[in-house]
Amino acid sequence: MCGIGGEFRLDGAPPDLAAVERMLPALASRGPDGEGRWQQGPAALVHRRLRIIDLSDAGAQPMVDPELGLAMVFNGCIYNYRELRDELTAAGYSFRSTSDTEVILKAYHRWGTACVERFYGMFAFALVELATHTLVLARDRLGIKPLYLAEGPGRVRFASTLPALLAAGDVDTDLDPVALHHYMSFHSVVPPPRTILAGVRKLPPATVRVITADGRSTDTTYWRPEFNRAAAPAMSADEWQERLMAALRTAVRRRMVADVPVGVLLSGGLDSSLIVALLAEQGQTGLATFSIGFEAAAGESGDEFHYSDLIARHFDTDHQQIRIGAKRFVPAVHQAIAAMSEPMVSHDCVAFHLLSEEVSQRITVVQSGQGADEILAGYDWYPPMANVARADAVEAYARVFFDRRHDALGGHLAPEWMLDHDASLEFVAAHFGAPGADTALDAALRLDSLVMLVDDPVKRVDNMTMAWGLEARVPFLDHEVVELAAACPPALKLAQGGKGVLKAASRGIVPDEVIDRPKGYFPVPAIRHLSGPLLDDVRDALTARPARERGLFRKDYLEELLDAPNARRTTLGSNALWQLGLLELWLQRIGV
């Protein structure tokens, strides 16, 4: 796990080494254990290292192989790197390190861009062919590891974070009106390749981009599950449960690959509890587990310690409760915003940021339960899709998921920021209209698994954990688990109020009290119910000079929200004022 950056020239000029060097401080938290830099011909690469596999200097990056004529920087972990190393050794390759980075180099030389299809893991990498002056950028199937890009005259820059590109300089920081529409409508999700800034784009998940020295660029999408029953054998409900649990056992075991200890972020929900159970089943003892809680607000509880404590006792883990008081909370909100590569409204960001700060003092790698709700229909907007005709799926999805419809948005955004078309609905319609996805629910789960999941919970976990040099691994997003979930009949997923197939499969493995508990979320009451210093900060941001000059929102709408800060909720129950305030707080934080 690391931070990467670089520049690739398309005009024959040398790369701007000073600009690339400026990325390093912005990437430091992702790799606190060292830094490296390399330049040759049209390319310059920089790297910040977090030592997890091959702790020696032999695993340092940028990694250059003069014999193969390749150089690269890499962020992530290839869980099957040992098996691939054995295969490559048998094919005649020799290794000077025990790192997964070197396996990627050799694998690319052996199999070209198709090497990514052999990787089980999370990754973003930039690789340079020294002889041909070709740049190869790649991102893992579920976009667990980020890769941002900024193009300029005669060059392209890339980095693990958007702020690193801003630090390099010469980026168009105008807002992208289409991205703003998505932010306000599509539950604050801005799908790739866009970001909220017009001058920054992100490589889509499951994509390999090849850029040649003359500026030609080609993208290859190498993975896309179909979300239908065509490739799935006819199986009983019991057989689906057995297949799912077998795949999860493998996924959890894969994510124990490390030369340092691995712990678990234990929320007390089924997903993280099952990870603990499967690790215990595989013989892990004294497993480090961590949970977090906040002070209650407006009568809403701020912790789920009852359930996390139950699991910790049941499996005899080395458990740590982290309690966050009011004095610590508001500064943590601003620290979490500073750690965001893009504005992220979810209350979970603050929780993950604080949790990661504490956990990183004891451990470097954790497993986490993100992704189960998106791939196994755990959210409350999925049941309304169950009996919707496929032809009516787009409108049904928008009705249950969109924060604001396009017509309503006209009363919220200032006229100069309004689009003359419904960009978010058009995006959903195009996604739903792609081949595959038999039912309306299949189409919704495909969109959420391949888009919403990537640019909300997955990005949130990456940004907040890596702000403290903590690597988070997500077994529910093992691509084989996702493929199996995509093929599972919708009725099995919707059973028992959602995630039915997982709940049934977990009986006898996880205590029933956790399986049968009401659906929970990372509770952060002080954001759902804005008051005190945090409300003052939101008000100040929305009325500050940069916000007035930007003029994103209608004055009457802002006044309405500020007069009653907790009265207006989005479709999914988020605080509408927080959504606007967070955007301005983030923009002002990055200096826009």
TrEMBL record:
Transmembrane segments: none annotated. Belongs to the asparagine synthetase family. Residues 2-214 form the Glutamine amidotransferase type-2 domain. InterPro entries: Asn_synth_AEB, Asn_synthase, ASN_synthetase/amidase, AsnB_N, Asparagine_synth, GATase_2_dom, Ntn_hydrolases_N, Rossmann-like_a/b/a_fold. It comes from Micromonospora arida. L-glutamine binds at D100. CDD domains: Asn_synthase_B_C, AsnB. Pathway: Amino-acid biosynthesis; L-asparagine biosynthesis; L-asparagine from L-aspartate (L-Gln route): step 1/1. This is asparagine synthase (glutamine-hydrolyzing). Pfam families: Asn_synthase (PF00733), GATase_7 (PF13537). GO terms for biological process: asparagine biosynthetic process. It catalyses: L-aspartate + L-glutamine + ATP + H2O = L-asparagine + L-glutamate + AMP + diphosphate + H(+). ATP binds at L265, I292, S368, G369. The active site is at C2 (for gatase activity). PROSITE patterns: GATASE_TYPE_2. It is an enzyme of class 6 (ligase). The keyword Hydrolase does not apply. NCBIfam families: asn_synth_AEB (TIGR01536), trio_amidotrans (TIGR03104). Its EC number is 6.3.5.4. One of its GO terms (cellular component) is cytosol. Keywords: Amino-acid biosynthesis, Asparagine biosynthesis, ATP-binding, Glutamine amidotransferase, Nucleotide-binding, Transferase. The keyword Cell division does not apply.
